[in-house]
Amino acid sequence: MITRFPGLIAGLAVGTALLAGSGAARAQAVPAPAVLAPLPAVAALPVSPRRLDEFLLMARQNSPLLRETVNQVAQNRIDSLVRARQNGVQVAGIGSALYYPSITNSRGESVLGYDNAISNGGNYAAIAQASKPILNRFQLQNDYQILASQGQVLRNTGRLSALDLRRNITDQFLTAYAAETQLSFSRTLLAQLRQQDQMLRKLVNGGIFKQTQYLSFYLSVRTQEVTVEQNRLAYRRELGTLRALAGVADTALVSIEAPTPPTHRPLAGLLAPAQRQYTLDSLRLLLDRRAVDAYYRPKLSAVVDAGLQSSSYLPVALAHSVGIGGGLQLGIPIFDGHQRQLQYQRLELSEQSRRGYRQFLTVQRQQQYEQLEGLIRASDALLGRIREQLRVAEALVGAARQQLATGDVAILDYLNLVTSYRTLQFSLTQAQTDQLRSRFALDYLAEQ
């Protein structure tokens, strides 16, 4: 926000810049970058998106925040045109009809009323006045640069908003994908248990297993059915949340595709949006300081008027009171209680805060980047161990399933193996999701 001073642009809104030209200051509109342009409709985009890039595209198309930023950039173009018009010729009409009554006593002495030498008994005027600021190049250039800075801040804010939207959509997509993976595993396990259930019923009827032993397995199948329903509800909930974030109206329960892990990128430098905002803040503070200086410069305007002015309302007097006038108006600040130095102190405090935030952000981003790299390496090692254990558990479950058909393995022992296999599969899903989160978080940090 610009520090406002008398004489500075009243009510400057944020937006795209105008730069002062050579010679007399002139405006030149700066077009908004493509990153904030409204996304065109994509005919091939499905009504029910399933891939991460489809959700991201629809979220950008439907985001009111990004559309608002585009509108604010357009508003600033209008603000820059308004500032250019303010420096042009301004024409105003002035009309007045004032009567100053005077009451006298019997001796002709004034009892009530203004001195007639001052008031002339009245003032009747109809004037058209034209004025234009002159010799204000410093003021005009600084105003244009302020608008330019505001436009850059807006576009940078739009990039940050787009990145935050991408991060939120990606994070929720990974949550929904993990829920779907768990649902898929639960369904597969339930199908295996049901097949095993049919075989065990035959073995119980054949006297190989007791009825009480089978009841434990039967209870496990029913429990797995409940787990599948719980996982289905969890996936529906997470998918609904993802669609709500992206502005998708579809409610069908469909499968989403596995996300492609992003490539490893280095940490973004000073031109990244998160860092650039502090560079823009520094420029804004510099322009605010120049705005203080501009306020204390003499202000000169050329004024021309034409019309009529008379102290009498009689037609004869009005007919002989038509004329023109012109000249210069000069304003020079003399003393305001040392407000200029106070404004400088205020801006210096803002600059100290800006430097502190930027230093903290630089250290924080580097620490987060290194931490995410460490988490990814640890996740890779953990996934390797879990996959190895899962292969062993799957082999044990398969061998126990064959021995169960001959009665060489107790049902409870088989159920324990299945439970261990189920726990490892859940751990694998969690580890995969955590790894993807770290990779996408690193990718976000590399661009932010």
Task: State the CATH class.
Answer: Mainly Alpha
Total of DSSP H or I helical runs spanning 4+ residues: 9
Low-confidence stretches: 1-43
Task: Name the shape in a single word.
Answer: elongated
* Range of helix content: 55-70%
Which architecture does the CATH hierarchy give at level 2?
Up-down Bundle
> What would you report as the Rg, rounded to the nearest angstrom?
39 Å
CATH superfamily: Outer membrane efflux proteins (OEP)
Number of structural units classed as domains: 1
Strand coverage percent? 5-15%
Instruction: Count all strands and give the number.
Output: 6
Secondary structure topology:
Elements: H1 52-62, H2 64-86, E1 90-99, E2 103-104, E3 110-112, H3 116-119, E4 122-134, H4 137-205, H5 211-246, H6 273-295, E5 299-310, H7 315-319, E6 322-331, H8 339-406, H9 411-447
Antiparallel strand pairs: 1-4, 2-3, 4-5, 5-6
Q: Describe it for me?
A:
With 448 residues, this protein is α+β, with helices and mostly antiparallel strands. The chain has one domain: Outer membrane efflux proteins (OEP) (Up-down Bundle), CATH 1.20.1600.10. The chain is built from nine helices and six strands. The strands form two sheets. It has a four-stranded antiparallel β-sheet with strand order 1-4-5-6. A two-stranded antiparallel sheet has the order 2-3. Strand 2 and strand 3 form a beta hairpin. Helix 1 runs parallel beside helix 5. The longest helix has 69 residues. The N terminus is likely disordered. One of its GO terms (cellular component) is cell outer membrane.
